[in-house]
Amino acid sequence: MATATCTHLDHIHDVTPSAQGCEDCLKTGDSWVSLRLCTECGHVGCCDSSKNKHATAHYHATSHPIIQAFKSEQDWRWCYVDQTYV
Q1: Which domain holds residue 46?
Q2: pLDDT in tens, 20-62
Q3: Is there a domain that residue 73 lies in?
Q4: Which burial class, exposed, middle or buried, applies to 80 when counting CB atoms under 10 A from its CB (0-12, 13-18, 19+)?
Q5: How many folded domains does the chain comprise?
Q6: What pTM did the predictor assign?
Q7: What are the residues whose beta carbons fall under 8 Å from the beta carbon of 52, sequence distance 6 or more?
Q8: Is 3 inside any structural domain?
Q9: What is the CATH number of the domain that holds 30?
């Protein structure tokens, strides 16, 4: 069985987070479950367990492929395009 590999590693950059919480939820006064950081531009969005799913919405709007856990003990990255952990 082949292991999926990410072909977008060149989209991982040292970015400055756009906010200390979900950028879009903060604008509307909404809440989130967990946060994700876009490794291309630094957008901070809420995870898919949150009702607004702003991190995934950011991917669909920009095609920035990789996110990582933000402000948590978790240490992982996910590539939306290749559907695999990086």
Answers
A1: 13-85
A2: 999 999 999 999 999 999 999 999 999 999 999 999 999 999 9
A3: yes
A4: middle
A5: 1
A6: 0.93
A7: 22, 24, 25, 30, 32, 46
A8: no
A9: 3.30.40.10
